[in-house]
Amino acid sequence: MKEPPRPSNTLENIMESFSEEQLSIIMKNLGAIQLTDGCSVGCHFCGFEAQRGIKVYFPYDQLARLASRFSKELATSQPFLYYASDPFDYDFDGHDYVEVHSIFAEQCGYSPSVSTTVPVGREELVVKLLLTPNEYTLRKLRQEIEDVVIVDRDGKKVDTLTMVKLQRESEKFDESGKKAFAELNGLIDVNKNWTNIFRGEEILNDYDYRLIWQNSLISRVSVSHVNRRRLERAFYSLVPNLMPENQTVLPYEMKPEECYLTNDTLFAILNAFGVQHSNGEYLSYSEHMQMQIFSLNDRQLAEIKAREERAANGNITGQLYVVELPGKRFVISPDKPVRYQDIIKVLASFQLDQYFLEEAYGSTTEISQLLKLGALNIQDLAEEGISCFHGVLITPAGVFNVQKVKPSVEYPLGQIITPISSSDFKVIRFERTDGSVDYSKRVTYIKRDPTPMFSEPTPAIR
Ligand code: SF4
């Protein structure tokens, strides 16, 4: 009979077996805490060769104590909470991953990065999180903009929302736009903190939902045959408008030879719909980004209706599929219905590589290479592993140094994992290695805090 997952006592053991100074070094150089030993998903392409099924997990109370005791150190290293595991597998003793995430956000002041392949049963939770701004990020933004001081030419304080409204108005090419622009130029930002003000106010006041999506608790979803159908069902149940038969189909003008919308065409459509935008916002529109998200007010919706009526009179050709998502967000897709993968693609276009689809990557050598790791691919290993740091890893099996190396027969996952002990204490200095790694560079070890440090050569690659 299958054994249920059991709580791990590793965190307690780590606390007891290392000195305070050693613990501090470990926490400052921590790249990841793997909440469970084993993963329920079992992807055949797993770049970590995670063992199938969850055997052991870290108890919630111990994670809370760790975050509280080492909040300062963890605020520096900002570990994510998975490794050869999926964060959403965590659901033990009445506490799920979102609660664990909140502990680190509240205690250590950062929102851990989250990548998921969506374990069975977590689809609705993941979709809801994707469509919702991260509460913690919003709160931080509120705090940031509270500190901002802006005054007008007469020295009178101007609130930040007024300033953002002026900015929006100034983007119009008419008299009111000119007036707003002049007024905006007269404001003095005492804190020199414009970027934060705009980001904060736009998010907090629902001006731009793309920014809200960028601030979802989840930063990456791997969509593949492992979860495609399950995710689709979750999207359809939470966003019924996404069902093809429920989508609004609008007419629009499109030349037959166009395989995607050019910027000019897109601007023409947005203008026709009366959607507020500035050129700068849409310049990245391309073949890979076949739709946009935008918000519409009632007046704009009325304009769409009027446009439909004009089209009914035969003035416009072509079709545009529009889906309304929760919170007056709209996704548009030319010529074919919007699919849930399209929404994930939109997210990808805003966050570069943050969301990936197996089908999108399957055709590129880069990603198919990336996934060729481990014993199964020993004859044809990828150029690089998927680990993204040199540093410390804590798992229910213990505390380890992780060094990223080029995948080889000896290290087919592209990493060397070695246990750390209190008697022969040496910790790899934390370093993010997203992007390409210089394997000839030595990793730096720390034995005591602060320094001395020493370095060791990367092992020979066979
Ligand atoms: S790729 Fe991620 S979700 Fe899939 S088996 Fe490996 S650790 Fe689990």
In total, the number of strands is 22
State the helix count: 17
Q: Kindly state the percentage of residues in helix.
A: 25-40%
Task: Tell me the strand percentage band.
Answer: 15-25%
Distance between the termini: 42 Å
Class inferred from helices and paired strands: alpha+beta
User: Shape from CA axes?
Assistant: globular
Q: Low-confidence stretches at least 5 residues in length (pLDDT < 50)? A: 207-212, 254-263, 271-293, 351-355, 360-366
Counting structural domains, the number is 3
Ligand catalogue: iron/sulfur cluster
Average pLDDT: 76
Radius of gyration based on Cα positions: 25 Å
Biggest sheet descriptor = 5 strands, mixed
Question: Descriptors for this entry?
Answer:
462 residues, alpha+beta, 3 domains, five-stranded mixed β-sheet, 17 helices, binds iron/sulfur cluster
Structure summary:
This protein is an alpha+beta fold and 462 residues long. The chain has helices at 10-17, 20-28, 60-69, 71-77, 97-108, 123-130, 135-146, 160-170, 175-185, 194-204, 209-214, 228-238, 263-273, 298-312, 340-350, 358-362, 365-370, and strands at 6-7, 30-33, 36-37, 56-57, 91-92, 95-96, 115-116, 150-151, 188-189, 220-223, 248-251, 293-294, 319-325, 329-334, 356-357, 389-395, 398-404, 415-419, 427-428, 431-432, 443-446, 453-456.
